[in-house]
C-alpha cells in the first residue's frame, strides 16, 4: 500500500468504510484470472478523483487499479448506496465523540414543480 493510499484513506476511515461496504464474492470457475483490486486502493483512487478534479482517465497509476476498475467499483458502490451509509456512519461516529456542532448545520432541499399549479 502506498503512502498516498494511507493518506487518503487513513485507518480510522478504512474501519468505518468496511462497516458499510457489501462483502464481495470472487467466483472464478476456472480458478484463473486476475486478483481483485483492493477496496482500499479503489476508495483512495475515488477520493483522489473527487478531490483533485481529474477525470477517471487521468487517474495516476500510483493507486494500482486501472481507471476502469476504479470507475466500476465507484458505480457499484453508488448503486449499493455505500456513500449514503458511509456518510451516516461518519456522522454517528462524530456525534458519539461530541465532535459535531449542530448550530452550524445547513439543511438542503430539492425543489419540485407542484402538480396542478400547487393547488
Topology, please?
Elements: H1 3-8, H2 11-20, H3 39-52, H4 67-79, H5 82-96
Secondary-structure-based class equals mainly alpha
pLDDT < 50 stretches: none
Helical residues, percent: 40-55%
Shape: globular
Mean pLDDT: 88
Rg over C-alpha atoms, rounded to the nearest angstrom = 18 Å
Tell me about the biggest sheet?
none
Strand content: under 5%
Record field, number of beta strands: 0
- If helices are DSSP runs of H or I spanning 4 or more residues, what is the number of helices? 5
In whole angstroms, the N-to-C terminal distance is 59 Å
Helix-strand string: HHHHH
Features of the shown structure:
5 helices; mainly alpha; 119 residues
Tell me what the structure shows.
The chain has 119 residues and is mostly helical. The chain has a domain at 1-21 and 37-98. The chain is 49% helix and 0% strand. The chain is built from 5 helices and no strands. It has helices at residues 3-8, 11-20, 39-52, 67-79, 82-96. Helix 2 (11-20) packs across helix 5 (82-96) and helix 3 (39-52) packs across helix 4 (67-79). The longest helix is centred in the C-terminal third of the chain and has 15 residues, at 82-96. It is globular. The termini are far apart. The relative contact order is 0.13. This is Transposase. Pfam families: DUF4096. InterPro entries: IS402-like_dom (IPR025161), Transposase_6_like (IPR052909). Residues 10-87 form the Insertion element IS402-like domain. Keywords: Plasmid.
